[in-house]
Every structure is written in C-alpha cells, then in structure tokens.
Amino acid sequence: MSESVNPEIQIESSDDDGVSRRQFVKVAVGGMCLAYLGAVGYPIYRYLESPVEKSETLAAIKNVDLNDAQKLPVGSVMMFKFGPYPALLIHHDNGDWSAFNAVCTHLGCTVQYHKDQDKIMCACHGGQYDPRTGQNIAGPPPKPLEKFAVKVNAASLTVSRA
Amino acid sequence: MNYPVWEVPIIGGAWVIGIIAIFHVMISQFAVGGGLYLAMAERKALKEGHRDWLPVIKQHSKFFLLLTAIFGTVSGVGIWFAIGLVQPEATSTLIHNFVFGWAIEWVFFLIELTSAAVYYYTWDRIPEKLHLKVGWVYAISSVCTLVIINGILTFMLTPGSTWLGIVGSGHESAYFWNAFFNPTYWPSLFLRVLVCTSLAGVWALVSFSRLDEEAYGEARTRMVKWSATWLAPSFILTPVFFAWYILMVPQENKHLLELGMSTIGSGAFTQVTRLGLVSIITTATISGVVYFFAFKYPKDFTFGHAVSIVFLALCATASTEYAREAVRKPYVIGSHMYSNSVRVSEIPAFNKNGYLTTSMWRPNGLDATPVAVGQIVFRGQCMSCHTLDGYRSMRRFLADRDEKAIGNILKMLREHKEDSPYRAYMPPLVGSDEEVAALQAYLMSLKSAGTPQGLAMK
Amino acid sequence: MSKIVDFMEERLPLTELAAFAKKKTVPLHRYAFWYYWGGISLLCFIVQVFTGILLLVYFKPGPDAYDSVRQITYDIHFGWLIRSAHAWSATLFLLSAFIHMFSVYFMKGYRKPRELGWWSGITLLLLGLLFGFSGYLLPMDELSFFATRVGLAIPDAIPVVGHAISNILRGGLEVSEITVQRFFALHVVVLPLLYLPIIGFHLYLVQLHGNALPPSEEEKPAIDRKSIAFFPNFVIKDLGMWLITLNVIALLASLFPQQLGKVADPLASAPAGIHPEWYFMSQFSTLKIVGKLIPGGLGEAAGITLFIVGLLLWILIPFYDVKKKGGLIAKRATYFGIFVVVVMLVTTILGYTAI
Predict the structure, then answer these.
(1) Which of A126, B393, C132, C232 has the fewest Cβ atoms within 10 Å of its own Cβ atom?
(2) A104-117, pLDDT tens digit by residue?
(3) Alpha carbon distance B412, B173 (integer Å)
(4) Chain B nearest CA to A59, separation (Å)
(5) Quick check: pTM over 0.80?
(6) CA-nearest residue of chain A to C47?
(7) CATH number of this structure's domain C26-261
(8) Is the ipTM of this complex over 0.90?
(9) Domain boundaries in chain C?
C-alpha cells in the first residue's frame, strides 16, 4: 500500500464545502467533547460524590433506636452516632434524659459532657452549653446544640429529631 | 418444552446468534445506507460535473456488491438457522405473526439484489440517467427491507398492549399492524437509518482507502472527505432519537438500566450500563478519528486508518446491539415469552402440573432419576442463557455454593418476588416441587463432576 | 484572549516554539506506524496518573488496604471502573512501551546522537516494571499477595545481596501490611518523582533529535525521503491514535473489569496456578527453567547473571552498533534483537503453559 506524500501543511480545499466543513467541525468536535465529558466525567463525578450521597442518606434519618440504652445508669453519659453525626445521650441525676447532636456549633469539634460542672463543653475553643436545653451559655458558639427527643421503650431508647 | 435443545458448549446458543447477528448488522445496514450513498454520490457527480468521481463510485459499487450480496445474504440466512435452533418457540411465534411481513421483505430483498447486480454491470453501458434510476431503485428497495424488518425486531421488545391483549386467542395475525407499528417502531427506525448512513460512510472509507492514489488522484481525496461527512447527521441526531426510544421502552425493562446505575460493582447486574458506556464512548471516538484521519487529511488516509475505524464501528455496533438485546431481558418477546421460551400465560399450569408433564423430553420409568429430570429442566429453563463451563458458567457460579445455598437461590428465583434483583433480567423458575428438587440435584452433580474455578476471571 | 497571548508572548519564547513546531517534520515511510507507540505509552501513563489520583482518594495503605479496595470495587459508585481503567492502562502502558522499545531497536534508533534517548527509555521501562510490581500488591487480595511473594523470588536470587534486597522490599521476612505500606510509598511518591523528570528529558531528546530513520530510509537520497509536518499533521494523527487508545482502555475496563479475590491470608495455602503478571512472566519462567537445569542456589545465581548480562548488552548496544553503514555488525545487532524477542515470547508462553 502506498502512502501519500504531504510535506507541507495541507492546503485545505477552500471552495464549495467551506461552510459545511466548518459546521461539521463544530458538530463533530462539540458533540465528541460532550460525549466524552459524559462518559468520562459522569463516572468520575459519581465516584467522588459517592460518600456524600451515603452520608446524605444517613443524615436524612429521623430517629435512631439504641438497644438497651435505657439501662444507662443515672448520672452517666453515652456517645452514639445519629446518622453520620456524633451524638450525646445524658441520663441526668433526676432521671431525665436528654440527647444532643454533639457537633459544636462553633467550628465543628465534638463536645463532651462534664459531670463535675454539669455542663457540655467543647475542648477546642472553650464553648459551653446547658446540658438540659443545649443552650449556648459561654464561649464562642453562636447557636445552641441541636436537641433530640428521647423516648424510653421497654427494651430500647428511641432518639428522634424534634 | 417440545422442541429439541441445541447444546452449544463454552459460548452458548445466544452467542451463536449474537456473533452472526453483529456481522449481519454491520453489513446489512451498510447495504441500506450504501444504496443511498451510491445513488446520492452518482447524482452529485453528474449534477455538479465531477466526472472524475464516476470511476471511483464504480469501484466502490463493486466492493459494495461483493460485500453485501455475499456476506450480507449469507449471514442473514445464518441468523434464520441460528434462531430456529436456539429459540424455536419465539421464532415460531414470530412466524405466525409476521409471515406476510417476511414475505414482503423477501420481495424487496429480491429487487434489491437484482438491482444491485444490474447497477454494477450496467456502468457505462446504459444512459447515465437510467443508470442513476437503477441506483434509486436499489436504494429505495433496500430501505424498504429495513422498514419491514424493523417492525419485527421492535415487536420483540415492545409487542404493544393491543397485541398482548389478544395473544393466545388465535387472532394474532389479524392484529398485524398493531404489532408491527409497536411503540418503539419509529424511534428505532430513525436510529437505524442514522446507523445505516454512518456505516455507508465508514465502508466507503474502507473502499476508497484501497484505491490507488496515482490512478484516482484528486477524486479519491474529495470522496474520502465527502464520505466522512456521512457520519455527521447521526452524530447530531442520535441522542435525540435515542432519548425518544428510551422513553418508549416499558418501565419494566428500563429497570435494568437503572439497576446498572444504582447497583454497585461490576457483575451481571450492571452489564447493560457498562455496554452503554462503551457504546457512547466508542461513538465519540469514531467521529473523532474520522474527523482527524479522513476529514482533515483525506490525502493521507490509509487502509490502516480505515481498518481501525471499522474496528471501532464493530465495537460500537456490538455493544449497542448487545445492550438492546439485554434490555429486553428477562423476555424474548416483551411481557409475553421469557427468554427461556416459557410463556407468561403458561406459568400457573407449569407450577401446578409440572414443567415437564406435557413435554416429550421427560425421562420415563427407571431413567427418571432426579439428576436426569433435573438435567432436562436445566436444558429447558437455564441453558438459553447459561453454559456449563463458558459464558455465564454454571460451574463457576456453583463453585462457592453448597447445597443449601443452591436451594436458597432456586427458591428466590421460583418465588420471583417484586423486590428480587434477579427479576430484572432472569425469568422465574417454574415447575413442580419435585422438578425443582431434581434441578437442585442436577446442579449438585455438576458441582462434584466439575473442576472448581473459584479464581477464574469473570 | 489576544491580550493573554500577548502577555504570554512577552514572557515566554512562544514565537520560537511555534516556529520550531512549524519547521519540524516527521518522516513518512512504510515503518512510520511504529512512531506512534511512544505517544500511545505516554497517553497510557497520563491515564495512570489521573486514575491513580482518583484511587488515592479512597485507598488506605496498611492493614486497611484490602477493605478499602473492596469498598472502591463494590461500594463506591464507578469505583470498579476507575480501578479497572487503572489496571488496564498499566497493562497497555507496559505493552506499548515494550513495542516502542523494540521498534526503536530494530529501526536502529539508538545510534548516535540518540544514545541518551535509548538509555532514558530503558530506565523508564524498568521503572515502569517496578510501578507494576509495587502496584500489584496494593489490593492485598489472595492473588496479589501470593504473586508478590513469588515475584520477590526474582531479586532474592541475586547472588550475595539478593536476600538483603528482597527483605528491605518486604520490610520483613514475610509479605505483610508493612510491605503494602512501603510499596505504596514507592508506587505513589518515589517512582513518580523519579519518573516525571526522566519523561521530560526523554521527550526533550525526541524534539531535539527528531525521529530516527530506519536504515532502509537512510539509504535513500534525501530527495526521495517523504515526510509530513509535525504540526498539525502528525499531532492530529497522534491525537486520533490517543482517542483509539483511550477507547480501548474504556472498552477493556468496562467489559473485563478487574476482580477482587479473597482477602490475603498468609496461613492459607497458595491457590493453584499462582503466577506473576504477564510482564514478569518471561523472567520468572527463565529462572524456573535455569533452576531445573542447574539445581540449587547456583542455578538461581546463573539465571540472574543471565538477565544482568543480557540487560547490559541491551543497554550497551549503541557502543557496538555505531556506524551508519554497519554491515555485519548492524546485522548481528538485529539478530541479537530477534533472539531477545523470541526468547521473551517463548519463555512467556512456556510460563503460561506450565501453570
């Protein structure tokens, strides 16, 4: 098979099909880019976005059943996961229950319950919250902690979004 | 099951149809698009006075005649043999419905073959205008074959509610036109016409790349460039018609596509989606390669370039056709007959009286051991898709499973619950309790006889 | 737009570059097809870099390696696709690099002034093999675990220092999560750092010296030689090749996705037919054959010595086959090349039939 010779840049035949040529170029290149963008870009997007989707599903949950959590002794505290978030369950001395989203509203550290001071505190920047209402009482937090409703059942404890 | 079963090792019967069909589609769709191409090329050459194009077109028409009249027809007959052997029940149903359709198709087909021969052999022998008319006769008759066969092909995916309503009444052929102009008829027709024109361009590139540069000179270059533009319409319009097509596909079948998107991993559930991906990306590559090699530098276009484009076109055709076939799962005729030839309407009777009760293949007397009965059930209900050791291998599938696990999966297939993921692409398992137990016994016997290939690649 | 161009032009030698690109030509002859393979391996490498970065988003080296790959394969959307594209482009990368090397060899592209290109190319290929070896272990499934264990037999056979080398690579006497951790560091930090400057140097040399002509073309008088402009003619064809390559990768990755075996268990017996990846098969099976002929440690040493001598001859070929009109010497070099190809093919086939 003989190959053609073309030492210089090819001089395009500029006569009759100049317009259709330009259109073809536009369509072919544009369409091709779109198809590639779709076939390559979409999988990559879904790949990177996969955990987001999962935590969104998790975050959408309305309540969590904690088996045997009703046995938590008076005056103690338990950490659990509410969807993707860390959460805090407190059994107060007087027998009341309260549960909060344990993400500090200041910069997102995880807060802890300090029994000696009866306060929820954030170790990062010294934010403090009321352990019954979740109200921000000292330090930098701009908002109260998100409070969950607690329902005691026979064999478990249901924490739900208010 | 009353027809004999054709046991094809390793590749399975479905692939026999598949391989023949892919080649047939590559060539027969060229036969349709190529007819239009020849007529339009000759018209353009005469009208615009490109006399030097005529010898090039003549050369191309020889290539065209050889390829389509030999490989196109032979592979078409091959499909008949293959579907008759692999899917006798479905073939029979199609013949009962469309016998006149096929008869008409063959009339067009005869005109097509004759006019193709006349077209080639009358170059320079009859007046040019008359010759061009022969070209148009060919082009129109070949488009007509597509118009007919498309009705039958699309019927298998979407028979339409009218036909499904009367099926079994004995009046099916009275509803010929309802079955023929079924919901996916039009989008599919337009899609196929687009594919035909692209293939006309692709094969013309192959034919021209073989032409001697010295002898044909400028005309070869110009025609390579012109052929490249034949791929443009399909590139703009395919997405539109494809969207229309998908819109007309029943929800039940679209479920398989969605399953492939949402199910994670790379197994059988995602096949359609993966093939779709290949189809899209290959189509894009074809247009890119045609643009770079043929359109931009038609002078340097070589046979090697043309071969790589044909190879890509083959990949695109194969993956698209496979995906189209796979979307129809679990049916061979949508909502009427499952891919293992079990009719939806027969299922209650099969479950009550047994799958093999009316079958002439049922082992009798002393031969009727559970394993022997199970083997017949396997041949009837599983082997249209599965092979023992090759494609969708049963032995590989059974390798990690014990008797209980096999029982579980058979139970799942038999119950065929709404939420079963297998529902999207596998027919329900039918038959009496004894038959299902026999199938389980047969599968266990496969497991002990076979070599485990736990590590083998899928 | 033109302002940006002006800004750049004042600060970068763009005009010179454009002039260079315009002037540069690529020879056109019956072997011109082989010029594309360097470009194809470059594209495969680029795909490796991109998919590798994407895998890095979820991969965890160390004890979690297997589980993170399991997540990528079965849990993360299209993770299987990214992983399969990475693995398949690795295979295609090495394949095209081998083809590139042999086509350069047979076109005598290593002769003066292109010796540095030859050596940098061999370095790139050897490092590429190391990329493959270190990457293969990372999923830590049964197959990769045992294949790595078997594959480390190759450096282990080097006389005197072999044990030390394989122990350092393993980070212990047995392949473990420590091995994964250091192979990971090798795979994603050390090797890329070495690789990128050498690739840059290699590509610079190609631009500096242009494409080598095969001897059959060299013989022709200059006026009979054909060529095409590098820009845009060759570049556009190269892009076309890239598209095809990309498509082949997508095809292989979608239709034959990479599987994940059972988690590696050092206590389990090796599954039957364990063997290294195809690009190590030749060396592996040569070692086995030599080991059969000469039993014991001596055989291993002999096998390794054979490789080293062969590789040295391969590297030093530009010093032997120097003259443009080489005559007998040039012929001998070609025969040696054919011998090497045949030996590699035969030992690879033997290796696969012996499984």
Answers:
(1) A126
(2) 888 778 888 988 88
(3) 37
(4) 19
(5) no
(6) A40
(7) 1.20.810.10
(8) no
(9) 26-261
